[in-house]
Amino acid sequence: MTKCLRQSDYMKLTVFYFVKRLLLTYLPFNRKAIMKSINSICIYCGSSSGRLEAYGEVGCALAKALVSRNIRLVYDGAGIGIMGRVADEVLKLGGQAIGVIPKALAHKEVAHKNLTQLHVTESMHERKMLMAELSDGFIALPGGIGTLEELFEIWTWAQLGFHNKPCGLLNVEGYYDSLIVFLDHVLAEQFVKKEQRDLLIVETNPEVLLDRYANYQAPVVRKWVGNDEI
Fold first, then answer.
1. In whole angstroms, what is the distance from residue 97 CA to residue 37 CA?
2. Smallest Cα–Cα separation from 154: which of 163, 145, 143?
3. Which of 43, 37, 81, 47 is nearest to 63 (CA)?
4. Extended strands (E) in the chain
């Protein structure tokens, strides 16, 4: 089933995130208390298959783990690469796969044809906002620039308090080893705090990562400069 996101729908999502940001910032509660159960997971991954077969195999293992826990897949909506393979596996196992794709890419016929639901948005920005709204957590598999951009943006949103959902890496065959080293270097150079760095969960096994998500409690992240220091 294909749905087109109207401009009015996009405005509603924008208002929702603005209000949610205000609540998270100014109301006197502990963010740990508002994390809901995991019903949908957003997957970021490559639109190509990559060099190693292991990348796709772990994608399929993640799909199996999602279906076994009755967790919906939310992803970029394409039928190619690792992302298409994950969606195919979820559907084959009887799970639900929800795609979100910009109109420009849907018209190029890269959209998956057999998804449980396919949302078509006007822009990439609308796509990312809707994917975030539909999801209770986020996982990056191996991928390229787009995967990294999506991961870092949703991680930044967690740091800023826009959401309290878990963000993680599935580090397949050491694919993200160099990135992890770099992030630890950024921490050591004091451009992020430890609690900000710890917002990104890293595992090599899909089941272990989902177990950590099931028990996730978002930390209260302090900013470098407090409101009283501005």
1. 18
2. 163
3. 43
4. 2-4, 40-44, 72-75, 97-102, 117-121, 138-140, 167-170, 200-203
Q: What is the pTM of this model?
A: 0.83
The residues facing 100 across adjacent strands are 119
Token reading at 13: 């999502």
Residue-level pLDDT at 181: 98
Count of CB atoms within 10 A of residue 167's CB?
24
Read off the pLDDT of each residue in 164-176 and give the average, rounded to a whole number.
Answer: 97
User: Is 98 within 8 Å of 74 (Cβ atoms)?
Assistant: yes
Question: Over the chain, what is the mean pLDDT?
Answer: 87
Report whether 43 contacts 100 (CB < 8 A): no
Give the mean model confidence (pLDDT) for residues 26-54: 76
Q: Are the C-beta atoms of residues 121 and 127 closer than 8 Å to each other?
A: yes
Cα 109 to Cα 204: distance, rounded to the nearest angstrom? 33
Residues written for the chain: 230
Contact 100, 131 (CB under 8 A): yes
Tokens 């996009």, residue?
Answer: 10
- Whole-number pLDDT of residue 218: 85
Options 3.90.1150.10, 3.40.50.450, 3.40.50.720, 1.20.1080.10; CATH for 2-10+43-213 is: 3.40.50.450
* Residue 144 confidence (pLDDT) above 70: yes
Identify residue 174 by its one-letter amino acid code: G
- The pLDDT value given to residue 12: 56
